[in-house]
Amino acid sequence: MDDEGMKIGEVAERTGLSIRSLRHYDDVGVVSPSGKTPGGFRLYSERDVERILLVRRMKPLQFTLEEMREFLDAAENPDSPGARATIERVHEEARNRLAKLRQRVGYAEEFLGIIEEL
After folding, report:
1. Where would I find the HTH merR-type domain in this sequence (predicted)?
2. What is the C-alpha to C-alpha distance for residues 4 and 68, in angstroms, rounded to an integer?
3. Helix (H, G, I), strand (E, B), or coil: what is residue 97?
4. pLDDT interval class at 108 (50, 70, 90)
5. I need a surface site. Which of 38, 41, 58, 59 has the fewest CB within 10 A?
6. What does the pLDDT read at residue 48?
7. Is residue 1 pLDDT above 50, yes or no?
8. What does DSSP say about strands 6-7 and 42-44: parallel, antiparallel, or unpaired?
9. CA 10/CA 103 separation, integer angstroms
10. What are the boundaries of each domain within the chain?
11. What distance in Å separates the CA atoms of residue 98 and residue 61, rounded to the nearest whole number?
12. d(CA 96, CA 109)
């Protein structure tokens, strides 16, 4: 990254997310770049990339964009009113969703085993 920040293509490559997704996250206020070039191109800081990576980690657990935004805001400002409750709620929900996801993966593995025996 240079002193000005990373352009969206570099961030997409680093995070494994599409440019379209990154633009959407900016449009809906989940993760907005810290800066812009004089020509209006988005410039992302390392902190922005860390936030994007948290979103990427929340996606498989099917959190909504609003839930992601609430969690990210709470995580960045843990002493703000309601932040601890939000973090705890998301933590519990993530544990529940992960358990369900693991169960579905188990079913998929069983199915694959059945197919391989045919």
Report:
1. 5-74
2. 27
3. helix
4. very high
5. 38
6. 96
7. no
8. antiparallel
9. 35
10. 6-117
11. 7
12. 20
